[in-house]
């Protein structure tokens, strides 16, 4: 009966639409079609509802064609309702007005954000203290990326039993793609198969959940054991990027992964533009995942250090910035006069210390008028015959140009605070060293240098936020601090796909070194999985809270690339501390909906995100979402202010415990912070207690955001939340 009800409502649309379709059918041929996602919210709970036939009939109606061949791109039917289809603009308008359709938005293309790190974070290899391998082996991490290389030793299933009983996924990686008891599932959404051709998906999966593989290195660099946070856990790979990462693929992957039974989703994908929550597939997918108890961990993005560059903004996701570890790669340049300069590339090529002739681009200009652009090594400004066999020196980092012009090596001006692999021997010098190099070249008729193989160095200044890591503040939910935490994202050695080519020849490597928030994100997904093995019943926000409130506290820095809470959120993840946070800030789906109501989104927009009809009876100020950090954007910089945050903590530590509050002001801020009550006495586990934090002060016109830490301490646990008050978006923090 219910089925008829559903169809009769469609039928009424049909009658209206039939008048329009012939017109559309004519214009169809002339209008360009684009893939749109038609999102229909939660799945009806009726057993007799068939999403696919509903999707087909909707398409038939709006196109006026009985054959919808080539139109329906995919149906979302397992965890929420909707479909992706090729539509013209007028068809898009028609479908948007149909009953049951929540929203229609174009399928955009997102970008992939391109291990000693675990030791750095204190998660030591072989430390089985308190670890329960059978629980770890029941943990499944869903990796949304560019596929995976199943043959990697990092995904070997030696010693693994059959997949956990809860697993409902499949191995549908395409032709000849094989899974095993470690890589228990694979799906691909674009053309081809789930094989990873870029190496990115293999790298991220092995960081989160790869086996421990000993004696690994990149040509001797970074030698040691590569491993994921929870090496006993299983991996399900969802290939959502095939050349491009399309929204429709990403939504499909959420639809599948939720139903397949993954525990944590890691998604090192994002966009450089901010999209409204209601049209962002990661935001929508992560909301559904959260409502099914699955935490989504997302990369902050690589668009830093610019202020407000971050695009991962929803509070139900865990957003991860990238920072350094105590291991860095440097490579030295020894000049003909014996002076040594230190550059920042990962150079595996061993030229045996041989000193070779140097040529600065301007001395290899293809004509006198092209001297300036030859300093930059713009390809058509260089005369290859003057470059061949020499070390090319350029103002810009252009290894490929050096290679194509026949140079044996390159030395470039490169201000980056991280190093990468290139196809030829390369060193990147900071400005001062580059100028020393140029003076040396000027000083002699036969300038020479040796570009040495990279060395591993200890970096005592770690962790520091990397320049490329995207910065807040949050431009949509301005009272939610983003990013949430930081984790290692610099020069991470992890598994590679043998289809990927880091070089210009046919050299393939099983393990490679990459940097990015793409690498920090799976670190935190691994930590979330690790926490979940200790607390299988915890909600996504409890896990997130544990990771945030136990993070290492970081200090703001204004030197180099500015770094404040808008760069590191609550701080640097601490995997072991996160398993025992003492108190957590929990939020339910209803809380997130009340938050959206508080953002003054109307019921229509909220339905676009949550897939549910809401009334907004329970409205909450965004800053009062029970979030583990506290942030508020004030409307003006000058004058006095007073704002209050409400929070509720749940006791997950010691049954009978007393927590005292402590407030520490950060980087010279002059805030007045009052916590009420200032002491919380817990009598039992899972007991909840509420408190308020009132922050007052005046004149926020400082270069840094005014911030403090609230720490609840029972003597054993220190439950720390950053408090950040700001006005405007700190343009002065841009470099
Ligand atoms: C091992 O892990 C436990 C917690 O799981 C921690 O307390 C201990 O310090 C660790 N030991 C080493 C040597 O890392
Ligand atoms: C591991 O956890 C499972 C499930 O909670 C439990 O049955 C088992 O006894 C635990 N094993 C160890 C070694 O603690
Ligand atoms: C699958 O593998 C078999 C055996 O190696 C090969 O003959 C076949 O062409 C492969 N199929 C595809 C689609 O690559
Ligand atoms: C997997 O797909 C790629 C194209 O994406 C293709 O080059 C490759 O041959 C395919 N492999 C198999 C085994 O089908
Ligand atoms: C190249 O770099 C040098 C040294 O930093 C500088 O003096 C020169 O102006 C730069 N050339 C161009 C074209 O920017
Ligand atoms: C942050 O600054 C404080 C005070 O200057 C200092 O005591 C602390 O060690 C610093 N923390 C870090 C992580 O550098
Ligand atoms: C809901 O909000 C959206 C976005 O602001 C707006 O376009 C729409 O008209 C609103 N709908 C209603 C029913 O108010
Ligand atoms: C709880 O702790 C307080 C203070 O340490 C102590 O006086 C009280 O007896 C404890 N209650 C229980 C039930 O353990």
UniProtKB/TrEMBL annotation:
<dbReference type="InterPro" id="IPR036852">
    <property type="entry name" value="Peptidase_S8/S53_dom_sf"/>
</dbReference>
<protein>
    <submittedName>
        <fullName>Uncharacterized protein</fullName>
    </submittedName>
</protein>
<keyword id="KW-0720">Serine protease</keyword>
<feature type="active site" description="Charge relay system">
    <location>
        <position position="145"/>
    </location>
</feature>
<dbReference type="InterPro" id="IPR010259">
    <property type="entry name" value="S8pro/Inhibitor_I9"/>
</dbReference>
<dbReference type="InterPro" id="IPR015500">
    <property type="entry name" value="Peptidase_S8_subtilisin-rel"/>
</dbReference>
<dbReference type="InterPro" id="IPR045051">
    <property type="entry name" value="SBT"/>
</dbReference>
<dbReference type="InterPro" id="IPR034197">
    <property type="entry name" value="Peptidases_S8_3"/>
</dbReference>
<dbReference type="GO" id="GO:0004252">
    <property type="term" value="F:serine-type endopeptidase activity"/>
</dbReference>
<feature type="active site" description="Charge relay system">
    <location>
        <position position="200"/>
    </location>
</feature>
<dbReference type="Pfam" id="PF17766">
    <property type="entry name" value="fn3_6"/>
</dbReference>
<feature type="domain" description="Inhibitor I9">
    <location>
        <begin position="35"/>
        <end position="113"/>
    </location>
</feature>
<keyword id="KW-0732">Signal</keyword>
<dbReference type="InterPro" id="IPR041469">
    <property type="entry name" value="Subtilisin-like_FN3"/>
</dbReference>
<dbReference type="InterPro" id="IPR037045">
    <property type="entry name" value="S8pro/Inhibitor_I9_sf"/>
</dbReference>
<dbReference type="InterPro" id="IPR023828">
    <property type="entry name" value="Peptidase_S8_Ser-AS"/>
</dbReference>
<comment type="similarity">
    <text>Belongs to the peptidase S8 family.</text>
</comment>
<keyword id="KW-0645">Protease</keyword>
<keyword id="KW-0325">Glycoprotein</keyword>
<feature type="domain" description="Subtilisin-like protease fibronectin type-III">
    <location>
        <begin position="624"/>
        <end position="725"/>
    </location>
</feature>
<dbReference type="InterPro" id="IPR000209">
    <property type="entry name" value="Peptidase_S8/S53_dom"/>
</dbReference>
<keyword id="KW-0378">Hydrolase</keyword>
<feature type="domain" description="Peptidase S8/S53">
    <location>
        <begin position="137"/>
        <end position="571"/>
    </location>
</feature>
<feature type="signal peptide">
    <location>
        <begin position="1"/>
        <end position="25"/>
    </location>
</feature>
<dbReference type="GO" id="GO:0006508">
    <property type="term" value="P:proteolysis"/>
</dbReference>
<feature type="active site" description="Charge relay system">
    <location>
        <position position="518"/>
    </location>
</feature>
<dbReference type="Pfam" id="PF00082">
    <property type="entry name" value="Peptidase_S8"/>
</dbReference>
<dbReference type="Pfam" id="PF05922">
    <property type="entry name" value="Inhibitor_I9"/>
</dbReference>
């Amino acid at each position: 009966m219910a089925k008829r009800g559903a169809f009769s409502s469609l039928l009424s649309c049909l009658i209206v639409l039939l008048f329009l379709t012939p017109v559309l059918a004519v214009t169809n041929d002339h209008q360009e079609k684009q893939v749109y996602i038609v999102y229909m919210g939660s799945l009806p709970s009726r057993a007799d509802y068939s999403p696919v036939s509903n999707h087909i009939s909707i398409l038939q109606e709006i196109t006026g064609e009985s054959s919808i061949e080539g139109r329906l791109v995919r149906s979302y039917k397992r965890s929420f309702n909707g479909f992706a289809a090729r539509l013209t603009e007028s068809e898009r308008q028609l479908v948007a007005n149909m009953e049951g359709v929540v929203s229609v938005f174009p399928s955009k293309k997102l970008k992939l954000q391109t291990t000693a790190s675990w030791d750095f974070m204190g998660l030591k290899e072989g430390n089985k203290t308190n670890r329960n391998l059978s629980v770890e082996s029941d943990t499944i991490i869903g990796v949304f990326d560019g596929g995976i290389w199943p043959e990697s030793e990092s995904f070997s299933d030696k010693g693994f039993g059959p997949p956990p009983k809860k697993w409902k996924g499949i191995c549908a990686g395409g032709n000849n793609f094989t899974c095993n008891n470690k890589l228990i599932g694979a799906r691909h959404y674009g053309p081809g198969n789930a094989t990873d051709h870029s190496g990115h998906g293999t790298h991220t999966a092995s960081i989160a959940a790869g086996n421990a593989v000993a004696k690994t290195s990149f040509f001797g660099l970074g030698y040691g054991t590569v491993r994921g946070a929870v090496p006993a856990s299983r991996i399900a790979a969802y290939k959502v990027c095939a050349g491009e990462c399309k929204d429709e693929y990403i939504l499909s992957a959420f639809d599948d992964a939720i139903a397949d039974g993954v525990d944590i989703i890691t998604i090192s994908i994002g966009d450089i533009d901010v999209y409204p929550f209601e049209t962002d597939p990661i935001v929508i997918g992560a909301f559904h995942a959260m409502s099914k108890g699955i935490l989504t961990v997302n990369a902050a993005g690589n668009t830093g250090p610019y202020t407000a560059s971050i695009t991962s903004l929803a509070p139900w996701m865990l957003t991860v910035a990238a920072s350094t570890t105590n291991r860095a790669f440097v490579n030295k340049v020894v000049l003909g006069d014996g002076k040594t300069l230190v550059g920042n590339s990962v150079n595996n090529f061993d030229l045996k210390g041989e000193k070779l002739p140097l040529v600065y681009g301007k001395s290899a200009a293809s004509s006198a008028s092209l001297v300036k652009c030859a300093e930059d090594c713009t390809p058509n400004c260089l005369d290859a015959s003057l470059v061949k066999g020499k070390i090319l020196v350029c103002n810009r980092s252009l290894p490929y140009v050096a290679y194509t012009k026949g140079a044996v090596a390159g030395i470039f001006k490169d201000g980056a605070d991280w190093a990468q692999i290139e196809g030829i021997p390369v060193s990147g010098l900071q400005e001062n060293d580059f100028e020393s190099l140029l003076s040396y070249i000027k000083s002699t008729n036969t300038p020479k240098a040796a570009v040495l193989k990279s060395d591993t160095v200890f970096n005592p200044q770690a962790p520091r936020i990397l320049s490329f890591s995207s910065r807040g503040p949050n431009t949509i939910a301005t009272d939610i601090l983003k990013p949430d935490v930081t984790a290692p994202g610099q020069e991470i050695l992890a598994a590679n796909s043998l289809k990927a080519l880091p070089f210009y020849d046919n050299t393939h490597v099983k393990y490679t070194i990459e940097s990015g928030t793409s690498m920090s994100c799976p670190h935190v997904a691994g930590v979330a999985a690790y926490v979940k093995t200790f607390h299988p019943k915890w909600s996504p926000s409890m896990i997130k809270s544990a990771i945030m409130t136990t993070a290492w506290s970081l200090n703001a820095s204004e030197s180099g690339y500015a770094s404040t809470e808008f760069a590191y959120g609550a701080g640097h993840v601490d995997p072991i501390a996160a398993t025992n946070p003492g108190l957590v800030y929990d939020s339910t789906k209803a809380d997130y909906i009340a938050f959206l109501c508080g953002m003054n989104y109307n019921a229509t927009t909220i339905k676009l995100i949550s897939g549910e009809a809401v009334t907004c009876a329970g409205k909450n100020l965004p800053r009062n979402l029970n979030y583990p950090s506290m942030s508020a954007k004030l409307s003006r910089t000058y004058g006095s202010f007073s704002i209050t945050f409400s929070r509720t903590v749940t006791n997950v530590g010691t049954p009978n415990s007393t927590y005292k509050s402590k407030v520490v002001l950060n980087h010279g801020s002059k805030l007045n912070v009052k916590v009420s009550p200032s002491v919380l006495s817990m009598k039992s586990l899972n007991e909840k207690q509420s408190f308020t934090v009132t922050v007052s002060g005046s004149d926020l016109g400082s270069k840094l955001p005014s911030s403090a830490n609230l720490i609840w301490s029972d003597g054993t646990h220190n439950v720390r939340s950053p408090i950040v008050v700001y006005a405007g978006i700190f343009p002065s923090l841009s470099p």
